[in-house]
Amino acid sequence: MKPLDMPKKEENPVESAVETAPVVEEKIDFSNVVIEPLFEDQVDFETFSKSDFRAVKVLACEAVPKSKKLLIFTLDDGSGAERAILSGIHAYYEPEQLIGKTCIAIVNLPPRKMMGIESCGMLISAVHKEGEDEKLHLLMVDPHIPAGAKMY
Fold first, then answer.
1. pTM for the whole thing?
2. Residue with more model confidence, 80 or 18
3. Is 65 part of any domain?
């Protein structure tokens, strides 16, 4: 036990600053956003369940030579082999911004050649318009989700 007349322990100013730092939420104005209408056609559950969505880790990303739009991603899909996916998102992201990110991909699409390079899947993005400008956001998830985790 400490005597009552003992001086109080001084607080660490760094700890105090961390504890009291205000959380600032970014205000987003959605008033000019235009969203595509929902599809009227329905997909049965059996068809939907054939799609294999997985968490993938971006190991490398670079611009495809002679293409203004395409980026080539080298991905860890949890299988032990690297996967290459091409995506036409260079207008929205620089390759170095994406290295190390955890994204979502559909991995059971048939391979497709673009600019002579085989793409084995598709990264999932959200697209909308703000006025006349198209906006794209690559779907990125918590980095604690391991490569290969299945999305349901």
1. 0.79
2. 80
3. yes
